[in-house]
Structures are given as C-alpha cells and as structure tokens.
Design a protein that fits this description.
- The structure holds 2 protein chains of 2 kinds.
- Chain A contains 11 helices and no strands.
- Chain A is mostly helical.
- Chain A has one domain.
- In chain B, the strands form 3 sheets. Chain B has a 4-stranded parallel beta sheet, sandwiched between helices. In chain B, strands 1-2-3 form a 3-stranded parallel beta sheet. In chain B, strands 8-9 form a two-stranded antiparallel ribbon.
- In chain B, helix 14 links the parallel strand 2 and strand 3.
- The chains are: A mainly alpha, B alpha/beta.
- At the A-B interface, helix 1, helix 2, helix 4 and helix 11 of A face helix 1, helix 4 and helix 7 of B.
C-alpha cells in the first residue's frame, strides 16, 4: 500500500473518499427507486409516489412465483445470464467477463481497504498477517483484471468490427464501454509500471509514475460506480437484473 | 411563438406500474429487439418504432420532467412535435411481444406498450387514426361492426344444437359472428358431430374489447369484461372455448383484471379441446386434405399466453391437429412458435395504420412462400383477415390460402359447413374449403362495397 499513499493521499483521506462515494451511490439508489415509485403498485391502481411502495411492488412481483422461482431466476438469469446466452454467445462471454471481472475487482478492493485498516490500526495484532494476505491477493487481482480486459476488449471490438452494431452505436454506448475499457487499461498500466508484473514482467516498469496511473484508475472507477451508474442512463446496470427478477426471468 | 397562449399539458405516466418505470431503465440497448421487430422489418427507415428507441425516448421525456436535473433546475418544456413523433412510434407496434421474448433484460414489453398508450390517450395524443372509433362503437353496438346484437347467432344452422346453458361454452367473437361465419359454422358442426353439449351467449356475448386495451382506451373495457364474465357465470359455465386468439387473450388476461368477483370457469383454446378428441379416437376422418400446410402462431394465443397456459397449449395443440389430418403435409415456417413473425394486425395497427398492417402481412406471406405452402392455417380470424388482405395487396399474385384449423378439421371430417342465409352474407370475405370429390379452397369475395369502419378489432 505504501506506493498508494503518495500524491497527497493518506489513509484517512481514502476512508473519507470511500464514505463519500458510498454515500453518493446509496443516495443515487434511493433517488432512482423513488423515481420508479412514481408508478402504481398494480394494474389501474392509484399512484403513491413512494420509495417503499416501489420496494414492496418489486418484492411482490419478484416472489409471485414463489421462492424457488426467485432463486432459479437469480441463478440462471441474473448470475449466469441465460437469456443473453440464448441470443448471442459472444455477447454472453462479454457480459460475463465484464460483470464478474468488475464485481470481483470491486470486492477485492473492498477487502484491500479492510486489510489496510487492520494494518493501519494493528487490530487484534493482525497487522502482519493482513500484510501477508495482501500480498496473496495480487494473483486474484491479476486474474480478474485479465478477465475484465477480455470482456471490455470484446465489447469495444464488436462495436468496431460488426457493421450493424457499429451503425447503431451512440454516445451512450461509447461512454459506458469506453469508460470500462479505460478503467481496465489504466488499472493494468498502473500495475505494469510498478514492474515485476504478471505475464509482462518489467517491460513497462516505470515505478515513479505508477501511483499517478493508479490514482487516475481509482478516480475513474469510483466516478463510474458512484457518480455515473445511479444517476445516468447507465442505471440499466442496476435496473436490468432487478427487472429480470421482477419478471421472474421473463419465463 | 406558435405555442403561445396554448395550455401546456404535462407528461402523463400514471398508467405505468412502478416496476414498469424500472423496466424503462432496464433496457441495455443490446439491439436484439431490432432484429425481430416485425414492423421495423418493413419500416427500416424508422428505427424510432423499435422497442429500444421507444423506451429511450420515453425515458428521456420522463427524465426531462422528473430526473435529477429537473429536480435541481426545474423541468424542461415539452416539445409537442417530439411527443407526437413518439406517439406515432408507440402506435406503430402490433404489441406482438417478440421483443419481450428476445429481451435480454426480460422486459415484459407487451404490458409496457399497453401501459404507455393510455398515458398518451389521457394526454390527448392517442389513440391513432380510426382507433378512436372503438370506444364509441363498442359502447353503442357492443361490437365493432355496427351489427345488431340480436343477430349474433343468425349464422347458426337450424339443425344445429346450441344450448342456453351448459358446462362448456363456445365464445365465438365478433369476427366469426359477423364477418367469418364459416368459422362459426364449422365450430358448431364439429361440436355437434363430436357430441359435445355446449352453450353460446348469443345476444349476451359482447365484444371481448381486446382492441380497447391494446390501443390504450381502457374505460369501456370494464363494462364488457364484467358483462361477459357475469353472462358466463349465470349459465353455469366451467370451460369456455375460444376459436379466436384475441378473445382468448382478453378473456384470460384482461377480463380478470377488471372483474372484482370470483371467476369459476377456465378459458381454453378450442384447438386444445379438439386435440383431446383426436387423441381419444372420437374423431373420424372421412376425407384427405391433400395440401402442404403451415401454421401461423397468433401472437395472442402464443407469446401472450405461453407463460400462462404453457407452450403445449399455445403452440403444439393446433399443430398436432393439423398433423393428424390425413393428406396434410405439414411444415413450419422459419419463424414459428415464440419467434413467429406477427401478421401485422394486432395492437390496433390494422385499424389505425392499415398500410403498415398490410406490409407485415406480405412479409408473412413471403415466409409461407419460402416453404411453398398451399395453406397458412391459423387459430385467429383476425390474423386470417389481415394475411388475406396482404395477399390481395400483393402486386404479384400469391396462391397461398388462409384457413382456420377448425375449418380444416370440419372439412376432413366431412361436415357440411354451408353458411345459412343471413343478413351478413354480403360481408363474408374468407377462404373456404369446398369439398366434392376432392377438397379445394375458394376465396369468397365480399359483395358489399367498402370496408368496415375500423377494419377489425384486436
């Protein structure tokens, strides 16, 4: 972590930034659900304009077929993207790799912050053990990073290669896919610049500037997560799985 | 300045359920719907009519009134021209539901389109063209053809047995009662030949009112739904059979939404009921029908009901009947079952935008031509009407005939399906099977001039 706390960053500043980002993200979700609550709770029902009634309606719809249908939909359609696989195996690989790459890296980052907290305060005397775990996390970070890279590369490539897809590509698609691609690349480049990197070794080693790239990568990722996802048209990242569950997989 | 002095109407969105607001944000722009949309297929210059763009536009309009920017700085003024274009896009859709079938986000598109349209009607933008006649016609005549309710059963042959009340009911629908009576006669003859006691509602059968829900004009729907359900309950009906996919859809999904009491009967496609008779050996085939036959899945009986009634009822029953008829060479078109191409008539398109309906029908005829079918069989009088109209509008004549599965079955069983003389003979316009030594299909041309005020009503 030592190379991360440069350029004016400190542990407390990172914690404050994390809290701010989570706060913005949670308020974004609240705002989004409140907006959806403008609708009714049933066919021809009166309007309530309520955050909680949206939640209630969603639960009612999602569990209409029973818990088993909900679990089946969650596994087959949300986690394994069955509907996407039926339509296009290429898009399925793209979505699966981006989704699992991104989500796992985000989770690993969260674990990293937790470990850093343990190291910082030497909680229960586990600072040394936490440092060892931190080193062990390098491999999963690399693996899921490459998974994300594969997905975002497919995403960008099909927009460039396939004429039909290219013709209907809008700024909306460019910003999201481009953003994911940029976040992935800056993350990798920051890692490569540190030297002794997985698969590439020291080819791109330039440790002095590695923190700069790491910071750009972090800011982009946090901006996408907190500022863009719940506040823009990219709400589909959250709305699509919720829709699939509410419609019981569309089956 | 053109809008100066005009009252600014707010955007209306209150007919959407909260989960449908979520669906608007759930579109991932994967473009899959664009590959399958039957209206976009014949209007490639209008991508705005595809689900992806319709959803994006509505989301944009809603965002301009209720999004973060609107909360901070106030809503943007609505552009009426933009809303009118979006209205056109929203109505250039047959609500066939193929977009929902292929949607990666599992959006229930049929329900979404049908929830978007009442907002446009409430705002004064919808419905589209002649669709606006539906509430008046149904409110006054209880059918879309300005026909007399007292003549609902005028086509039933004198020697046929139709009871006043019975556990099984046949709900004929307006089209079979007034415009495609060959279907009604064939159904009644079949039921009698198979010794199935059944009743009909006669004067008490009101239009299923499907067209009202499809076009976003909901209010009169309640009267029709409640009336029909009560009429069936009064007769002690336990099973209602439908030879019209549109009526079946309305009775299964729409009526219960408007009826507050208990509904004791189940709805069933006639083809399912008849298939059981074929399987049990009750059906005696007397004539071969030497035709190459394909089956057109009506959206209302297929995609709209496959999650309610199951795939077997929705897709396989009519096919099983056709395959069991001697002489029939059956082959599916490339697009069939849940991926079928809509005939183009649904969602009020036939009444509102007839040229679009015809172009879709021509595309469906092309599908049948590709496999060199002699007959397109279906279980929807409305699909049949539109595909026949599409055929008539072709520049190069097509020999493909369009016949109902029930009529084919009646012909193969050697039943007399002659329509008795009645006040609506001049309005009959359909392909009919005429059997002497061999069976042939003739087209009955309409003798009365002009078309119906609103075409047909689903």
């Amino acid at each position: 972590m030592a190379d991360f706390y440069t350029l004016g960053l400190t542990y407390w500043r990172v914690i404050a930034l994390t809290a701010l980002v989570l706060g913005v993200w949670i308020y974004g979700l609240y705002f989004m659900f409140k907006k959806w609550g403008m609708g009714s709770t049933g066919y021809q029902d009166e309007l309530r304009y309520s955050f909680w009634l949206f939640i209630a309606t969603w639960i009612h719809e999602a569990f209409k077929g029973g818990v088993w249908v909900f679990v089946k939909t969650l596994v087959l359609d949300v986690l394994l993207l069955r509907r996407t696989l039926r339509r296009s195996p290429v898009r399925w690989v793209m979505h699966m790799t981006i989704f699992y790459g991104f989500v796992t890296l985000a989770a690993l980052s969260g674990v990293g912050l937790l470990l850093d907290t343990i190291i910082h305060f030497n909680i229960l005397g586990y600072a040394h053990a936490a440092e060892e775990v931190f080193v062990m996390m390098k491999m999963p970070f690399n693996i899921f990073g490459y998974i994300l890279l594969v997905g975002s590369t497919i995403g960008v490539a099909r927009r460039i290669i396939f004429r039909e897809v290219r013709a209907r590509t809008s700024a909306y698609d460019v910003v999201l896919l481009g953003g994911v691609f940029l976040i992935t690349i800056t993350g990798f480049y920051a890692q490569w610049m540190r030297g002794d990197s997985f698969l590439v070794g020291d080819i791109f080693a330039y440790p002095i500037y590695a923190p700069h790239f790491a910071l750009v990568h972090t800011i982009l990722a946090l901006a996408l997560f907190a500022i863009i996802l719940p506040w823009s048209k990219y709400q589909h990242v959250i709305a699509a799985p919720l829709t699939i569950l509410a419609n019981r997989g569309g089956e | 300045m053109a809008d100066a002095g005009k009252e600014k109407k707010p955007l209306v969105s209150g007919y959407l359920m909260s989960t449908q607001f979520m669906e608007l944000d759930g579109c991932t722009r994967c473009q899959e719907c664009m590959k399958w949309c039957p209206t976009f297929d014949v209007r490639q210059d209008r991508p705005g009519i595809t689900p992806m763009y319709k959803i994006a536009k509505f989301r944009e309009l809603l965002g301009s009134q209720d999004g973060l920017r609107a909360k901070l700085f106030g809503p943007k003024p609505l552009n009426e021209d933009e809303i009118n274009i979006w209205k056109d896009d929203t109505y250039m859709c047959t609500t066939c539901g193929v977009c929902g079938t292929v949607c990666e986000s599992g959006i229930n598109t049929v329900e979404l389109w049908e929830a978007m349209r009442p907002n446009l009607v409430a705002r004064g933008n919808g419905p589209y063209g002649k669709q606006s006649f539906f509430p008046g016609l149904l409110g006054k005549d209880r059918n879309p053809f300005q026909a007399k309710q007292s003549e609902r059963l005028c086509w039933v042959p004198e020697d046929a047995t139709v009871l006043e009340s019975e556990k099984v009911a046949y709900f004929a629908g307006c089209t079979a009662a007034y415009r495609q009576q060959a279907l009604g006669v064939a159904t009644v003859r079949l039921m009698n030949a198979l010794d199935i006691p059944f009743c009909m509602l006669g004067e008490d059968e009101w239009c299923c009112a499907s067209a009202l829900v499809r076009t976003g004009q909901r209010p009169v729907m309640r009267d029709h739904a409640v009336h029909n359900v009560d009429a069936l309950k009064e007769r002690g009906v336990e099973t209602v059979l439908f030879a019209c996919a549109g009526c079946l859809r309305a009775a299964t999904i729409d009526w219960p939404r408007w009826y507050e009491g208990y509904i004791p009967y189940k709805t069933m496609p006639l083809s399912v009921y008849l298939r059981e008779k074929v399987r049990s050996g009750d059906v005696e085939w007397k004539r071969p029908l030497d035709f190459k036959v394909t089956y057109h899945d009506p959206c209302h009986n297929g995609r709209h009901l496959m999650h309610v009634k199951g795939r077997d009822w929705s897709f396989e029953a009519p096919r099983d009947i056709l395959k069991s008829i001697p002489g029939v060479e059956f082959q599916d078109m490339t697009r069939s079952r849940e991926y079928q191409r809509c005939c183009g008539a649904g969602g009020g398109v036939k009444a509102g935008i007839p040229d679009l309906a015809l172009d879709c029908a021509k595309a469906r005829l092309d599908d049948a031509d590709l496999i060199a079918a002699d007959i397109i069989a279906s279980t929807c009088p409305f699909c049949r009407r539109n595909i026949m109209d599409g055929r008539a509008a072709l520049t190069e004549k097509s020999d493909v005939k369009v016949v109902d599965v029930v009529e084919m079955m009646a012909a193969a069983m050697g039943l007399d399906t002659t329509i008795p003389d009645n006040p609506y003979m001049q309005f009959q316009e359909q392909d009919v099977i005429v059997c002497e030594e061999v069976c042939e299909i003739e087209t009955v041309e309409r003798k009365a001039e002009g078309k119906d005020l609103v075409g047909e009503a689903h």
